[in-house]
Predict the 3D structure of the following.
Amino acid sequence: MNKRLVLRERPQGLPNPSTWQLVEEAIPSIDDGEILIKTHYVSLDPAMRGWMNDTKSYIPPVGLGEVMRAGTIGEIIETKHPEFKVGDVLSGWGGVQQYIKTDGQGHFKVDTSLVPMTKYLGTLGMPGMTAYFGILEVGKIKEGDVVLVSGAAGAVGSVVGQIAKINGCHVVGIAGGKEKCNYVVDALGFDACIDYKSENVYQGIKAHCPKGIDVYFDNVGGEILDMALSRLRMHARIVICGAISQYNSSEIYGPKNYLSLLVNRATMQGMVVLDYAKKYREAGMQMGMWMMEGKLKTEEDVYEGIENFYDTFLRLFSGEKRGKLLLKVIEP
Amino acid sequence: MNKRLVLRERPQGLPNPSTWQLVEEAIPSIDDGEILIKTHYVSLDPAMRGWMNDTKSYIPPVGLGEVMRAGTIGEIIETKHPEFKVGDVLSGWGGVQQYIKTDGQGHFKVDTSLVPMTKYLGTLGMPGMTAYFGILEVGKIKEGDVVLVSGAAGAVGSVVGQIAKINGCHVVGIAGGKEKCNYVVDALGFDACIDYKSENVYQGIKAHCPKGIDVYFDNVGGEILDMALSRLRMHARIVICGAISQYNSSEIYGPKNYLSLLVNRATMQGMVVLDYAKKYREAGMQMGMWMMEGKLKTEEDVYEGIENFYDTFLRLFSGEKRGKLLLKVIEP
C-alpha cells in the first residue's frame, strides 16, 4: 500500500492534528512514459507552512485533498520511461507519500556514490542552494564584511554562515539554546552565536558586531529583524529569505526600524531559490568541493515514519531540531 | 539686525510654538576669508523634522540653541574671500536666518540669469536631485515600467513622476485632495492620481496599476507603503526616500507586507541625496534642459516672513502646499 499525507484543512496559525490526513491507497500502476519512485526521505521545510495558505505567493498553494507538497528523494522501482532505469536515485518534488508515480518532470537524477542521499535534500538541495545564492548573489558578501545570520543552526543558516566564513567574513549567528549555539561556533566555525532564548539579542548584536552589520541574512523576521535593522552599517544588505517567527501568525510583524534603510542607504531584498535553477549544478559542485575539503559541515536531523509527519513538522517551529529536518518514510 | 530662528526644545510629535525661538542679533561682522550672505529664501523640507531628533541619523541633529538647519539661497553683500564677490548668488546650508556669515563651505554659486533663484531650492536643489537620483539610480526605471509615486504634488514626487514620464513609464501618483490630483494629472502629465483623502487608495492602485507596480517611490511610509507592497510585480523596486506620515509619530509603522519582497524577489532600498553630490551638476544640466523644453514643470509655494516660519513649516505635514515650500525671509 501507498501511505500518502493529504491536506485536509487550511490551518489558522500552527497546524494541528486534523490539518492533514494519512490515507492508504494501492500502489499506483504506471503508464508508458512514467516511472514509479519509492520515497526514502521527505524534506521538512519552513516554507511548507506558507504553501498551505490560500494566498497568492511564488507558487500556488497546496489544494485541499492534495498530497502535501514536499521535496523528496527516492529510488526508481519500476520504469516505462526511456531515460530512467530501475535503481536510479531521484530528487524532486514528490510530496509526502511513500510511492511517487511521475513522468519525471520535477525530478532529477543524483549520484549517491560519493554523497549520501540525505545531503541532496539538505546542502545539495533547496536549503543549500538557498544559502549559496542568497548570501553570494543577494547578500553580495565580500572579505571583511560583518555578517549576521538568524536561524544559524538551521539547514539554510548553517550553510550561509560557513560560506561567509569561507569568503573571509566575520560571522555571527543567532540560534535558540546553548547547545545549538555551541554547535554553531564549535562545529561550524562561526565567530560567535547569540542564544535568543537566554540572551538579550540586541545587546548580543552590539557586543559581537560592534561596528554594525554589513549583511543580515534573515530567516526569522519579527523583532530580530528590527534589531538587525537598528545596527546596520552604510550600504548594508538584508537578505529576506524567510520569516519563521511569523508563518503561524495571523498578523505579520512589520519592521518598525525600516527607515534605517534610508539612513544607511541600505537594501532589503527578497529571494526565492527557484530563480537560480539554471545554476544549481555549478553551486552543487562548489559546495561538494567544500564538503570534501572539510570546509562545509552539514548535519541532518532524521526522524522516522510517515505517521510521525505532524510531530516532526512542528519541530520546525519549536526549534527542536538541528540542521536539515528529514523524515524517513521508507518502510523496512 | 539679523533675525535667526534657534531650536529651543526637541518636540515630541508635531513641533509647537515653543519648539523654536526667534532671536535678534547684530548683523555679524566678517573676518578675512569670510563672506556675508543676505538670505532671500529658506527651504522648508520634511527632512528637517528628522534633524530635530536627538538620534543617530545620516547627519548630526541640530543642537539646542543652534540656528535651525535649512537650505538657503541669498546674495553676497560683503566679502573678504578671494573667490567670492559682492552680488554673487549662493545656495547652501545657511539655516533659518536673515544673514549668513560663512567661509563659503557648504555654499555654491548659482546662475540666476536663466533660472529664478527659487528653482535652486526646488528642482535644481535638493528635492530635484533627490527625485532625479532616486528614480533613475535607485528605482532603475526603464521604458514601460509602472511607477507609483506618493507625495505626488510635492517638491520631490512631482519631479519623480515627470522624469518617469520622460522615460516612457506609466506613472500613477498619490496626493491629498482633488485640486492636487488634478494638478498632478493635468499640469504635470501623470497618467492618473489617487486622492488619499477621498478615495480608497488600495482600490485606486488596483484600478490604475492593474498589472501591479514595478517601482514605488515612497515619500510617505505608513499604510500606503503597505498597500504598494501588496501590489508589487516581480523584481519590483521600492525607493525609500521619506516617510512623512511617520515623522511626528512616537512609534513608526512597520510595513506588515514586507514579505512581498520575498514573494516578488523585490528590493526596498533607502537613499540620501547627499551621496550623489559629485553628480549634481550633471543632473542639474539635464533637468534644466527638460525645463527649457517644457517637459519638466515645477512650482514653488512661497510664504513670506521669518516670523511665519512655524505656521509655514506645519504646511509640510498638513499638506496645505503644492510643490516646493519656501519662506522668503528677506525684508524690503
User: Anything to note?
Assistant: Chain B touches chain A through 33 residues (CB under 8 Å). The mean pLDDT of chain B is 96.
